Task: structure prediction
Amino acid sequence: MSARLSRTSRPSCPPSPTGSPSCGATPPIAAAHETEPDVRYIRQEIFEPIGTEGQHKISAASAAIVGCGALGTNIANNLARSGVGRLRIIDRDFVELDNLQRQVLFDEDDVRRRMPKAAAAVEHLRRANSVIRLEAEVCEISSANIARLIAGCNVVMDGTDNVEARLLLNDACLASATPCVFAGAVGATAVTMTLVPGQTPCYRCLMPELPAPGTTPTASTAGILHSTTAVVAALQCTAALRLLIGAFEPSDEVLCVDVWDRELTRRRLPRRPDCPACAHHRYEFLNAAPVERDTAPPGTNSVRLAGRLDADPGCLAEAWRGAGTVVLNDWLVSLRVGEHEVIVFRDGRCIVKGTADPAAARSILNRLLSLAR
Result:
């Protein structure tokens, strides 16, 4: 089988001090507007509740966006264009074709290049706003790194797609006294709530325990409309702007949206006096030791393998010449052979596509790794 080796042709982001590639501040683009008055945010500034003073607060603020999928791309696009001064975008995945239906910052070229979502989002956003600082963190969140990832941020935006990640995020935000705007969406429905530590109920008041595996519908199993995530992300971003300018009124409400039936309802969520997280400050998810296990997300026909592979993507790409279709960029290497694809990230994470069986996935990985020995 002949091989095709392709590499990212656009400028890439240099490694961050922590070792993972990170995109920082971008020099302003050279264009005619540089000699004109700065009117980038003028329509937002003349909105009376924000005004010039509010815009200055927004421009001085930092936000972490955890997850850069359907929710996260809409959030990142909105906050970047609103002028939030620093955005840290955190995501573990790469762009795939079925993402393009709803993940607004990506295109077919990102799919072809197997671009990590966080890095691709930064590439696109820096062309929309070159005066804010953009950071990409291509990694999986865990109890070992979440505190570092949200450190120094004025607000955290939930773009995750599972309850376990939100419970970890909830603990981390409570422990650091950082507001967090949560959301979840599936099909035509979505919910959002805002955590202000010490003033509102927390996410664990809503979800006291982890649901049993496979019992919670997801976009992969139940589908999702682009309009669902666009609407709830807009509500999240409005809450974030209000938080950043000091105009947010804490409440015990959860907003529920049904875009198909055009309904917006409010549900009261009383703060639980027995909540382990916000009432008793027991951060069980944050304090737990990271647990790695093989996972096969429902509806994806793929397996995320536990552990870290000690291999350089560039060396693997060279060794895999002739084995199949190889794609290499600054963050990962991908090898497709027939109906299977193996993706190895620079931090050692591995994904095998084309099977949902962890044992079969490890066999496929080992067989392809043997070609590099």
